[in-house]
From TrEMBL:
Residues 15-154 form the DDH domain. It holds the Pfam family DHHA1. InterPro entries: DDH_dom (IPR001667), DHH_sf (IPR038763), DHHA1_dom (IPR003156), Oligoribo/pAp-PDE_c-di-AMP_PDE (IPR051319). It comes from Clostridium grantii DSM 8605. Residues 232-313 form the DHHA1 domain. Signal peptide: none annotated. This is Phosphoesterase RecJ domain-containing protein. One of its GO terms (molecular function) is nucleic acid binding.
């Protein structure tokens, strides 16, 4: 399948690149790395996105190309590459999956993937999609310069929790080593991502901590973020994905649950420390992800989904 991806890229002239909605460090980093690599190869490549690049990632090279203005493939596009997106509903672009004008390559590392592309390359052994993009660019003999290295290193750093999560492999470290060898400022990247918060974000963390609840012999941590909370701290458009780690820091907790209120739905993030497969839980609600990190969206009220999840997770725990 890897060879099919390479062949399709080589044969295509105009290539659109997109990723999942509410893009994170992996989707943005891998997308911008692929963009730079394809441009280097002389391809007419561009980003398709319904959203602008989040503020936290605007330091990435070519982040300005993620401006939310190009929302569908251009008329001359012959290939669209979707990164880090397990299902059609979450694609950050208006695509026609039945289009005869362009083919779709689906590149992902999640176990739960709908295989919606003309070509589906899903490597669940990769810690991040950035790891896959590195192998593609390396195979295509792209010059992995400092700019490309910065984007891929960001991808790896964010999706492995600074190389702490169990998805980190020997290859992940090997790739990171090659990226550092380009001279990319890896320490500065870490500082920008993890030591660059605002007072409002810290206050929101305090609010979440004050309202968190433990259940099932303190093995489950429930946290919530309401629209009122986001308004109160001026974070309606801010990235709150790091809040889930507040729960996993507690010694007794095996599963952390973050329930976040949005305008039209409730978003739920799940994290597990060791033996619970939270991907299976997310799939019950049409979501997915990894065994230790997953999520989904629902129309249920906060208290209702919390009650349901408590029952489901308790059955998975060794209490």
């Amino acid at each position: 399948m890897f060879e099919k991806v390479i062949d399709s890229i080589c044969k295509s002239k105009e290539i659109g690149i997109t990723f999942h909605q509410n893009p994170d460090g992996d989707s943005l980093g891998s997308g911008l790395a692929l963009l730079q690599g394809l441009l280097q190869l002389g391809k007419n490549a561009y980003i398709i996105s319904l959203e602008e690049c989040p503020d936290d990632f605007k330091f990435l090279p070519m982040a300005e190309t993620i401006d939310g203005k190009t929302t569908e493939p251009s008329k001359d596009t012959d290939l669209v590459i979707v990164l880090d997106c397990g299902n059609v509903e979450r694609i950050n672009a208006s695509l026609n999956l039945q289009s005869e004008k362009y083919s779709i390559i689906n590149i992902d590392h999640h176990m739960s993937n709908d295989n919606y592309g003309s070509i589906n390359y899903v490597n669940t052994k990769s810690a991040a999609v950035g790891e896959i993009i590195f192998s593609i660019l390396e195979y295509l003999e792209v010059d992995i310069n400092k700019e490309i290295a910065t984007t891929i290193y960001t991808s790896l750093l964010t999706d492995t929790g600074s190389f702490r999560h169990s998805n980190t492999t020997e290859n992940t470290h090997n790739v990171a080593g090659k990226l550092i060898a380009t001279g990319c400022e890896f320490s500065k990247i870490h500082q920008t991502l993890f030591e660059n918060t605002t007072l409002d974000k810290l206050k929101l963390q305090g609010e979440v901590i004050n309202n968190m609840e433990l259940a099932a012999n303190n093995k489950i941590c429930f946290m919530k973020v309401t629209l009122d909370d986001l308004n109160k701290f001026n974070l309606l458009n801010g990235d709150t994905s790091d809040l889930i780690t507040l729960g996993t820091k507690i010694k007794t907790v095996e599963v952390a649950v973050l329930i976040k209120e949005a305008e039209d739905k409730i978003k739920v993030s799940l994290r597990a420390k060791s033996y619970v497969d939270v991907r299976k839980i997310a799939e019950i609600y049409g979501g997915g992800g990894h065994t230790k990190a997953s999520g989904f969206a629902t129309q249920l009220r906060i208290e209702d989904i919390k009650k349901e999840l408590l029952t489901i997770i308790e059955k998975e725990l060794v209490i």
